[in-house]
Amino acid sequence: MVFGVRYVLPALATVVGIAIMALGGENNLEGGASIVSAGLAIYFVNWLFRIGAQGDRERDVEDAAREHYRRHGQWPQ
Questions:
Q1: How many CB atoms lie within 10 A of CB 32?
Q2: What span, in angstroms and rounded, lies between the C-alpha atoms of 39 and 12?
Q3: Closest CA to 18 of 40, 45, 36
Q4: Is 65 helix (H, G, I), strand (E, B) or coil?
Q5: Alpha-carbon distance values, 66 to 52, 53, 58, 75 (Å)
Q6: Nearest to residue 20, comparing CAs of 39, 7, 41, 4?
Q7: Structure pTM?
Q8: Contacts for 39 with CB less than 8 Å, ≥ 6 apart
Q9: What is the pLDDT along the chain (77 residues), one digit of tens a residue?
Q10: What gap in Å lies between CA 73 and CA 63, rounded to an integer?
């Protein structure tokens, strides 16, 4: 499910938008470009969320290292 939301949904929206742009007139060109933009936006929002979650994990590791230092007087290896 996560793979689908991260990669399949944005790719599908982008491909559908390109297909709409290729098959239609000027109005379809603008609508297809909007759909392509939506697909790219979905991908980049997912990317930003993953970057933010990675920062939380790094912060947890840093907190554990500080607690180890407080208890034992040396930084963990």
A1: 20
A2: 8
A3: 36
A4: helix
A5: 21, 20, 12, 7
A6: 39
A7: 0.68
A8: 9, 10, 11, 12, 13, 14, 15, 16, 17
A9: 889 988 999 999 999 999 999 998 888 999 999 999 999 999 999 999 988 888 778 888 899 999 999 999 998 87
A10: 15
The answer to whether 34 and 17 are in contact (CB under 8 A) is yes
What length does the chain have?
77
Question: Residues near 28 by Cβ (< 8 Å), separated by ≥ 6?
Answer: 20, 21
Q: Which single residue is written with the structure tokens 């909007």?
A: 34
**Cα–Cα distance measured from residue 46 to residue 38, given in angstroms and rounded to the nearest whole number:** 12
The first and second tokens of residue 69, run together, are 């230092």
Q: Which tokens sit at 20? A: 């709409």
